User: Fold this.
Amino acid sequence: MITLNTKDKINKSKMRVGRGIGSGKGKTSGRGVKGQKSRSGVAIKAFEGGQMPLYRRLPKRGFNPISRVNIAIMNLEKIQSFINEKTINPSDTINMELLKKLRLINKNSQKLKILGTGEIKDKVNIEADLASKSAIEKLEKISGSIQLKK
Assistant:
């Protein structure tokens, strides 16, 4: 029976190149004959002889998912500060269209999420796509309402 780790395999010494014909890696030391790659200090990697390299010909795509949905987030404390500044009227329904019109969220955002950081004092009606549990609890506590779109 053969085991995977035999002692002779563990203690195998590295090949010494350029030490005579009999070694099996003599003369050109396995580098072929002449040319840039046979010389020392060569680092070609993705060089394509002056042609625009493949990695520069392709479009940049890292960490930016093509089908990403832009979600605008709004904290309750932020809504309260806008009400205090009289930017938002608390009697209005706060929804995506209103926030986009007032330029409080980015025009490219496709969904609106309400988060529960901070306190809200005024009773408001909010229409959003998503909401955190804490935001829903805080709005119900002050008898405000939130409608979640499906």
